Amino acid sequence: MSLSINILYGSQNGTARNVAENLEKDLLNDNIPTTLLQLDDYKDAKYLDNQLNVIIISTTGDGESPDNAIRFYSNLLSREDFICNSLKNKKYALLGLGDSYFTYFCRPAKVIDSILQSIGSIKVIETAFGDDAKNLDETIESWVKDVKLYIKKSLPLGNEVSSISTDGDNTMEGIEFTSSDGNITDSNDSNSENDTQVGSIIETEMNIDIIDDANSLEYKPIKLSFNKELLSHITQLNHVIKKPISYLSLMSANNLYRSVNYSRTQQIFPLIPKINPYQTSNSNSNNMNNTTIYSSSSNTIQYSENNPFAAKILSANCLANNEWKKTLQITLDITNLHWNYEPGYVFGIIAPNSDKLVLPLLKRLGLNPEDGFRATTTKENLCSGLPVMLNKCYTYYEAFKYFININACPKKSFLRMLAEYCTNKEDKKQLYFLCSSQGAPYYRHLKLQHPSLLDVLYTFTSCQPPFVAILENSTRLAPRYYSITSSPLQNPTTISFIFNVDRYKMPNTSDDNKIHYRYGICTGWLDELLEKPSIPDCFINYRSKSIYIPIFPKTVNSFVLPQNAIINKNIIMAGAGTGIAPFISFIEYKRQLLEEGTLEDYPSFKELTSINQNYINDNDNNNDGNNDDDKHNNNHSKISSWCIFYGCRSFLKDNLIKDFNMLWKQIIENKNLNCKKAVLDDLIITTSREGEGPRYIQDAMKLNENAEKLCNLLRDKNTYFYVCGKKALCKGIQESLEEILQHYGNMSPEESKKFLDDLSNEKRYLRDIWG
Ligand SMILES: Cc1cc2nc3c(=O)[nH]c(=O)nc-3n(C[C@H](O)[C@H](O)[C@H](O)COP(=O)(O)O)c2cc1C
């Protein structure tokens, strides 16, 4: 009986999806049919007796499942009948992706693995866990190789695949490829090479005479470096990844008459195929007379990444601008989005690539920005990276500006494709090397240099790939997500968010001995759109300017307040820098609820008042004789405790909550709740670059006066602990909490870890961690 293969993936940012898609492409290339699905569409999989489920799932948030696998994951966790019955006695191969720097490394994959075992699924290949912090690519490659070998062996006789992971038809002078399962290992095999060596070689190549060019607006491509010496000794490359297959046909469409300027001013909206506020009812993207404006009168429109909402920028604020960073706040009009957002919600922004990168790249590729093309395919299932571009006419400028991810380091399959188009043998050889097992540490090091596609083409000067090959092997420009800082009570038709304008220092390998900077795609774009507000505390009103940005609500938001958070829950928040964003929204929400007192329109408010009344009545019944006045005055401390730990570098230079200090320190007399309540019971600010106090949040938590209180609060079942920030901060706080629980709660190290694990499982220890 032939094997029926389901490839199922859960992916937040595309890595797991890419692995799944590439595996599907490889198998299709060998005429092995598969069904490719995201895990949440598992019900559409093929349920046959001889079934192999190949599952690839990454980790997001704090050890959570990616959004497109949540349903599958929770059904499996609750041992839902359909899932269990359909997976029982079925074969599976599982790959988890994660980052060991996080507390819960590859948790969804580990949980899935153990449940599949317990319900009687049959593991046919050892489960692998790819680690971003170590050897992600190698783990993926070797697991994929094992999966393909297994499938090959399981095929009926006469149907075997001749070649699996190498491309036998490419032999270069001085390099011959081993067979896929060939065990020929070179003495210079990657495994004997270590990254430190790779790094040190590169550092010795760096120039010493450096000029800092922070203000240069130019995009200077960087020549990438790696150890060519090693390559000169290698006669044979092992496991060079397979040449990607071609599946697109391109027709020229040069009568689009869309100039770069037209495309630029229209921004992304006319290019997005589905309905949006700026598209005609006749949704043909070639139609230049986009006159009928779609009026959003109902709230039924599902705004998404492919159908974004045009949000008008109302104002911008420069919160900080110093030698370390520039932080901006933007307020958007979302009136017609009809989104009942809550504090802690997140939305996505679709930002285009910068012209500073797009235009030189087009020039390097010899493409006229205003010429058009139309991509078609008979193999639509292979086009999962950029399906949105199929069967539409775009100019080359629009393709690179709005759709293709040209900023990230190209994948190995992309480099492999580039090798095909090099006229110089050295260039070709180096690219093959980077795609081989010996070249793995060098590819890893290449990634650390954050090269764009232009940098790669600048390095391999003889490479002249056709546009169609670039399109076939590219990934889509991904949206960027931001937490809302405003509270819906303040104004439900606007949202505010804050961000640092990301700036990266490039290694000094450009030709001009200058240090060059690259800017984050989205934050750099927003900064440019806003005419560079750069004076701290300056506020710019944009209402009259009609600047729109494409946004969409994120549908899954778990970093939110629990029910009755204001009445009887202890809320502890910890965030550094812009990690304060969701907490600004939480605290402002509470402040406004307390201040306004009569919010009858607000649905949760009535519930909130009655619950509070019950609470007060309960307290009355348990009253030990205190008089009523005392009771009411002290209710704020009895009812719940809200506190925040906030970290910045300098109290004056980059403190993002300085404007809120006085407001958040208020104790508000709320007539409706019949009590006085503090907005915040504690506001603890640490400054890492000044002062004598603790430098970081995790240090402040360990001070006696905070630690004991934290320990008691953590043991109270009404406590919710939120952390938002970079992974180093989250790790530091986790370690401090463990220490606190051990010291003040008399727990052993294992008990303290388990205590925090349990808290996280109960969704009372919530972390929004950035990669
Ligand atoms: C915001 C964020 C949170 C993450 N949280 C975890 C985590 O809790 N545990 C883990 O092992 N890896 C974590 N990772 C690492 C990802 O799982 C890893 O980068 C993976 O390769 C991403 O795959 P994807 O692009 O398919 O989502 C996180 C990454 C990001 C960006």
From TrEMBL:
Residues 306-562 form the FAD-binding FR-type domain. Residues 5-148 form the Flavodoxin-like domain. InterPro entries: CysJ-like_FAD-binding, FAD-bd_FR_type, Flavdoxin-like, Flavodoxin/NO_synth, Flavoprot_Pyr_Nucl_cyt_Rdtase, Flavoprotein-like_sf, FNR_nucleotide-bd, NADPH_Cyt_P450_Rdtase_alpha. The lineage of its organism: Eukaryota, Fungi, Fungi incertae sedis, Chytridiomycota, Chytridiomycota incertae sedis. Its cofactor is FAD; FMN. One of its GO terms (biological process) is methionine biosynthetic process. Keywords: Amino-acid biosynthesis, FAD, Flavoprotein, FMN, NADP, Oxidoreductase. GO terms for cellular component: cytosol. Coiled coil: none annotated. One of its GO terms (molecular function) is [methionine synthase] reductase (NADPH) activity. Transmembrane segments: none annotated. This is Riboflavin synthase domain-like protein.
